[in-house]
Amino acid sequence: MIKWLLIFSFILEKVVDGVIHYLDSKYMEKSLPENVKDVYNEEEYLNWKSYEKEGGRLDFISDLISTGLLFLFLAFNWYAGIFDFLSVYPLYLQYLFFIIIMIAMMLPIELPFDYYNTFVIEEKYGLNNMTKRTFWLDQLKDFLIALGVSYGIFVILIFSFERFGNLAIVVAIIAIVVVSLVVAALIVPLMRIYNKFTPLQDEELLQKLHALCEKYHVEVKKVVVKDASRRTTKSNAFCAGIGKKKTISLDDNLVNNYSSDQIVAVFAHEFAHARGKHVWKSLPFGLFRTVLIMVALGIVLNFPVLFQAFGFQETNYFFAMTLIEMISWPLTMLLAAIGNYISRKHEYEADAFAAREGYGEALIGALKQLSKESLSDINPHPLVVKLEYDHPTLSQRIAAIRKEEANVAR
Ligand SMILES: [Zn+2]
């Protein structure tokens, strides 16, 4: 009984997710907000719609298949079967082998969709710059990183709970916080696994950027250019690092194809993230979510009946996580929405800063071009924005920038 209730909850999560994305795809048919009507011309607008449709259809099929597979795993107690099969090995090896088996099994399902998305859809719409070699190398790196990260998490969990009993939650939280801080601090070196970062060369541009840093006495350790063009024609920028020294990264696509004012505008936006310590400010909420998961884990592990319902003879750390997801997905969804709300608030703050520095119009121009080039969804369903968007929509950002400009003018 409990088993089928939980499976029902699992299916319900997927259905809710499906309904939300269905609403989103229907919303695309509505006319665009007034301030973004000029982003696409008639032909580009149709092009954007068919791109969204093809991508959406691919996502739907791939979600359907993976949901079906996970359903079989739950219904037929296959997770317990795999662990039974691995039970001759010591605990730490069981989890290592289990993760390898799971990733290897998901690979033949996910890989064809990834390949199709990159070399058929993205290629068709002129968004792909990836060679087959880069694609396969990326897949290999993804595999190794997924293996390392998920195994790392289980090592922390197994070690904490096997060694420290009731204190495990505290030990695991501390360990996970330390690891996340190290990752946040070393994000650029870690990203070198995928990309090359070279110092920005343009002297004139550098002068403008440094002037901004000096004006506000904020030290930016490095301004680097990321070789995004190796994979895509889309552009992006980010500010990374915690503590005093931040790194701001601009994509080469941005540096090469945008006007100097637009690049400074994007830099000013990223600079505002650095100045406002936004990476640092979003950490407490992330920590709060980790604490909740650990507490939930501690609770679930005390109910062996939940594990027995799915064929396990004893409690299991992997399945405990699966159980938590099945039980608490509405809460997880709510927490994600709150996290995204905090992130969107930071984005508005960063845009407002750029506007106050006199780069409002340049930023609007850059954002419009960025959206157009990446065929991004400029008219998403408001509910999807609330739940899933860590950036406000283009239309919302333009409206907020214009409002800030009007405030400055007054
Ligand atoms: Zn931002």
Task: Write up this protein.
With 410 residues, the protein is mainly α. It folds into 2 domains: 2-185 and 276-409, no CATH class; 197-275, Metalloproteases ("zincins"), catalytic domain (Zincin-like), CATH 3.30.2010. The chain is built from 15 helices and 4 strands. The chain has a 4-stranded mixed sheet with strand order 1-2-4-3. Helix 1 (2-27) packs parallel to helix 13 (317-373). It is globular. The N and C termini lie far apart (65 Å). The mean pLDDT is 93. Residues 269, 273, 347, 350 line the site of zinc ion.
Query: What number of structural domains do the residues give?
Result: 2
Mean pLDDT reading: 93
Radius of gyration equals 23 Å
The N- and C-terminal alpha carbons lie at a distance of 65 Å
Strand arrangement across the biggest beta sheet: 1-2-4-3
In short:
This protein is mainly alpha-helical.
Key phrases:
mainly alpha; Zincin-like; 410 residues; 74% helix; binds zinc ion; four-stranded mixed sheet; 15 helices; 5% strand
Give the secondary structure arrangement, pairings included.
Layout: H1 2-27, H2 42-75, H3 78-86, H4 91-124, H5 132-164, H6 168-185, H7 187-191, E1 197-199, H8 203-216, E2 220-226, E3 237-240, E4 246-251, H9 252-257, H10 260-275, H11 278-300, H12 304-308, H13 317-373, H14 382-388, H15 394-409
Parallel strand pairs: 2-4
Antiparallel strand pairs: 1-2, 3-4
Helix pairs in contact: 1-2, 1-13, 2-4, 4-5, 5-6, 6-11, 8-10, 10-13, 11-13, 13-15
Bound molecules: zinc ion (ZN).
Zinc ion (ZN) is lined by residues 269, 273, 347, 350.
